[in-house]
């Protein structure tokens, strides 16, 4: 991907509900080989240095299989409580990608480098578009755009796009590691930062994610986020 080419950016957290500037298209879908967790400390957006909040990051399969704590979380949330050997394709994270025209690439990258500065670094992922034939039939302009900007995966037959993504890796200073959901929920419930309350971040992410699956089959729901929502709501009752 050259510096004068259009830019694709993956959103799996706040980018889902707060898009980058100059995005002309938002396409729903998923990536494989990762899990999404609120295991990244936030001192600049949803918390402060004195009282850090929590935001999501992605944990790759290669890191998961090396740490029994990561595996325990995967077995509970992604495997419905079943302790089994997992492969990368067992892990899927729904999100969306944004198309940025070439003339805005440099500006948007600079914007994202600042927005994602608290421990996040740039990486590349393969994104699988999840729009069915019925949706394409009702939105032929989207079908044409997707087909002209993607390649077909020879194994799945799906439209895929190579995309930029910002990840707080397990080695970054703001990564807190596995945390009991009740503790995470308490932190989220009680913190606020320059970008707003931590609770707003969770609820907007959860709601926006549920809206991504245009088939109506709730494939984009995230069991881990469902539990966090339940826990913060219980604190209100």
Automatic annotation (TrEMBL):
Cellular component aspect of the GO annotation: cytoplasm
GO process terms (BP): glutathione catabolic process
Keywords: Lyase
GO-annotated molecular function: glutathione specific gamma-glutamylcyclotransferase activity
Domain of life: Eukaryota
A Pfam family that the UniProt record links to this protein: ChaC
EC numbers for this chain: 4.3.2.7
Protein name: glutathione-specific gamma-glutamylcyclotransferase
Organism: Komagataella pastoris
